[in-house]
């Protein structure tokens, strides 16, 4: 017999009697003020957060906060005039010199500060990891209270890769001293797009 | 109501004053107490070392000693927990069941069964509580810091009735002292380091006395205090609750 | 224990000799435990969440056969090549053959306790494949030729000066530099070159979803992703117990994992790998390595519910005072002590005894594994199977005999305080470890037995 068959046979023989799946429907957050909660949590994990009215303001904020002489890429067509629109077919290694990547999340989670990025929103999988600084635009109305609502919206998901990203890359492996930018972005900025507010 | 007084072996030999205080305290609050004289040990040192299969005779003897009582009370959370979890009988399983649910540690007996609301006791000292793990996480005598639920503490409830007593706040209110039965000799270095660190927490927060529902923890902490010539004393909670005005 | 090998007590004693290090180690891990407490207390339904996670995992164990098949089918549909490995040797051989096929001689690896258990690095290095651990802590441990001492914080036992020295020796940083930010920046530059040049990347797996055939990898550094998204061959190694039934269950586990591990609301990166990138190969190896056997051990199968958060280590006072390497096993601490005897009972016979059974571990565990009860149960099994030291067996038998007989107890008691001479902690001779750093109470003038016989009827107005 192959290992596959051996393992499956041993598991079948040894697994305990049926134990039903619990209902998880009762798990939900309460949506008091998700924008405020999100902003507070995201700042507490070392991220920067700004409220912006429109994409023109995004453009200005990025120029103000980052070195525009370096390579800035984006997946947002509206910012295509200002920054390089990233190629979905380029060799991922060619993004090694990206200073800032500006992408848009599908949703964000107030309770933990994370944004959800399926690969279509990343442009390429490597982009939010390889850049020195990550900027993510989040529409205010897409912020949900907890991961339960987030997975409710993501569903089974039409993506090959997707990630929750909740802050700049960090490590505390040396004596528990927190250092931002272990391998990935040294900073992460979330721009909450609130066209109503 | 007749209570059978269960005095663990090492308490009998080393800490008779705690056993006496337990007896007197129970009588003071109006309980009839009988001490069956043929007691040895509940079997915990063997069971926790992996020798539970050698404890049957200890179990049989425990049944013989305590079958006739409404309640069985001991000044030791650890021994009570052992009986609650592991007392079995081949000949009288029903009685073993009954004993398992009627054996109480002294503090929980006072708060849960007798519902004591005042004590005529005075102990004008700064006291640190050492939470015995078996009392805390085994018998739920207080809320442990690990869980996200409402706080309560049966020992504190009783100590608050003692005139003049001031409880000190510890940095780590429910950390294990490192006694752990045979662990204290099998893992001597870790055991002592844990004990030293507990002692330091009490010392730096100003305790004059360390008290607990378990004398095994106290014996270990006292052994360290004594070796280091500390002025801090270890005292079983029964002795504080039984102290006179 | 094998002859000549030091057991937990001896290794712990060596660690404790450096008291300043122990105090630092203890304090750092306690601080993380406190952060975990704060994080968990911000979720009002925390205890319900733990209960739910525990019950999902119970369901997984009871249905593992079908979930494995479902996962395999969905992952295959997604374009992932699924492999099965019964043991470490087979797992390592699969990894090697995947690399050999592509003529790859260098691989970057993110954190995976399973590959540590399999000793994959040694296996590949022997065959001429260069492997670099990319998690900073694991990278440091690899440079220092030591296994990780903690599943989440691999080099928590090292001081920054020691790490500075390791960097100086292996990477040529300036001598005496020990600032964490400086060292981390240096490693970042060095490892970025590694990521850019490696054609193959291996990651561990935190959760694999049967319903969708995708798997989730959680890191704070982003190292798993840096490796995976730049590689042409991506390999994931997972123990078969990492399956969860549905995508929605990730919401439960991801809310618990990082809060339990470090007190963070979520790990910085929770990456969901479902399909290979265009032009990339994605392999996943399902590894048994004793899991199916543990599944059949009724008292111990719940250990397979573990999501590897490390909370039991952070809270365990024995772990904090003795250091992870004293457990001489890939997984240290309380959870390691209930997993290890399944793999090799003789070698790990000491581990279930490296605990005071204080119970803190079971109560921080996000999936409610009854860890301390299992430690107690393993002790019974180890003694029954004959792995307890002979001296211990004889002592216990004598104690059981004496304690079970009131006559012998009382006769000996009168003659010479039997308990004083026989209870393990009280044996009164200079060879008893109790007396190394502790005193015994001064013998009272009479035992309670004697006092009661004399005084009963006189000490109470009631009688």
UniProtKB/TrEMBL annotation, chain A:
Annotated protein name in UniProt: LUD domain-containing protein
Signal peptide: none
Domain annotation LUD: ranges: 95-193
Pfam family of the protein (one): LUD_dom
PANTHER family: LACTATE UTILIZATION PROTEIN C
Gene3D superfamilies per record: NagB/RpiA/CoA transferase-like
TrEMBL record, chain B:
Stretches assigned to the Cysteine-rich domain: 3-83, 127-221
Any Pfam family matching the protein: CCG
PANTHER family found in the cross-reference section: LACTATE UTILIZATION PROTEIN A (PTHR30296:SF0), UNCHARACTERIZED PROTEIN YKGE (PTHR30296)
InterPro entries reported for this sequence: Cys_rich_dom
Lineage: Bacteria, Pseudomonadati, Bacteroidota, Cytophagia, Cytophagales
Molecular functions (GO terms): oxidoreductase activity
A GO CC annotation given for this chain: cytosol
Protein name (database record): (Fe-S)-binding protein
TrEMBL record, chain C:
Record-annotated 4Fe-4S ferredoxin-type domain positions: 296-318
Gene Ontology BP annotations: lactate metabolic process
Any one GO molecular-function label of the UniProt entry: 4 iron, 4 sulfur cluster binding
Keywords, comma-separated and alphabetical: 4Fe-4S, Electron transport, Iron, Iron-sulfur, Metal-binding, Repeat, Transport
InterPro entries: 4Fe4S_Fe-S-bd, 4Fe4S_Fe_S_CS, FTHF_cligase-like_sf, Helical_ferredxn, LUD_dom, LutB/LldF, NagB/RpiA_transferase-like
PANTHER family reported in the protein's UniProt record: LACTATE UTILIZATION PROTEIN B
Protein name: Lactate utilization protein
